[in-house]
Amino acid sequence: MNAEDHRISSDWLALREPADASARAPDLVERLGRHLPAGRLTIHDLGGGTGSMGRWLAPLMPGPQHWVVHDRDDELLEVATTDLPGPAADGSAVTVEARQSDITHLQPDDLAGAALITASALLDLLTGEELTGLVDVCATAACPVLLPLSVVGRVDLTPADPLDARVTAAFNAHQRRATERGRLLGPDAVAVAVEAFGQGGGEVLVRPSPWRLDADQGALMGAWFAGWIGAAREQEPDLAAEIDAYADRRRAQAVAGRLAVTVDHADVLVLQA
Ligand SMILES: C[S@@+](CC[C@H](N)C(=O)[O-])C[C@H]1O[C@@H](n2cnc3c(N)ncnc32)[C@H](O)[C@@H]1O
To answer: Which atom belonging to ligand 1 lies closest to the Cα atom of 103?
Structure first.
């Protein structure tokens, strides 16, 4: 792990899991279902963390499934192998295996026999070179690829505030920051993925998958806001005083139950040629 790669906590992944489940585009699962082979499915979940994707998707698909969850974080993988998905849609067994690895170094053999490759909330954390490398290794597996929940750089807060656009721009610049690995894609990841997979000749489908947060998701909204504002502040230290005053205004609105936030994401399904 490089110095700039902060660890993603299992608490954060648990907090966002219900919102992720509500946001992912169900019609892409229906399309995907028409492109899966009969028999036991081997599904590779890249950057799978605690296994949230399997807990959402496995019960929506029929037939026996074996999920291989790849992540560099062994503590998250431990959760993935203990908090297992429910049975498949037809009651078939679902098994889970953890593989600790850096998914930017995957080789074709690592994905041999895959019926499906998925990566949820991962693409925006990669550099352009890492993403195109991943597209190349997915191409060797020649199976569908489902990529939900990449951030796209749009956030809508209600009521509006004059500082919204500047904080959003600062956050997006932070998402695109230069690292030891290269510049991160952040909100550009979906466009890069669509272009790279499209060049392979497959059909590429994109759907919106926003989080819609209000007082009923207060804990998630608070944690999301802390991360969003913290990144913007780190990116624009000269704006710190204005950002702090903005954060106080927004927190007061949230406490009063008057703040609603939409965080836009996109889901991508690739039906490889
Ligand atoms: C935002 S979390 C999403 C986790 C999970 N897919 C979900 O939807 O809950 C991103 C995950 O990618 C993992 N990750 C990021 N870069 C990675 C890399 N290069 N190799 C392996 N895992 C990586 C992180 O450890 C983390 O678990």
So the answer is: 20
